[in-house]
Design goal:
Number of strands: 11
Oligomer: single chain
Radius of gyration: 14 Å
Mean pLDDT: 95
Distance between the termini: 40 Å
Length: 133
Amino acid sequence: QLQLVESGGGLVQPGGSLTLSCTAPGYNLDYYAIGWFRQAPGKGREGISCITRTGGTASVDPVKGQFTISRDFAKNTIYLQMNNLTPGDTALYYCAARPSTVLACTGPTWKREDYESDYWGYWGQGTQVTVSS
């Protein structure tokens, strides 16, 4: 069973940066599209960015220019580089995986019908990001 593990969260001051990591110990992620999601207190889960098996990316408009997704196949790891963080970015951040088909993660804008679909069947436990002074 594919299990994802996120890391890299923490407490950061406004304007700061963090890089989150997503991996799957003992499991090859090469054939999966990977998405990053977040859920803030009292709010629903929202998609942020995704990346396909060939490195294509898509992001939701609010994070374009602020967050960057990438993947390192050699390390079997997907990253989310987050810059210029604000208190509004405080949330539990998750990564998820789905089979990388032609319908998955088509960019440049990540479509709601994709990030809300049930195809994202594998999830990590999340890593907390808190932005506060």
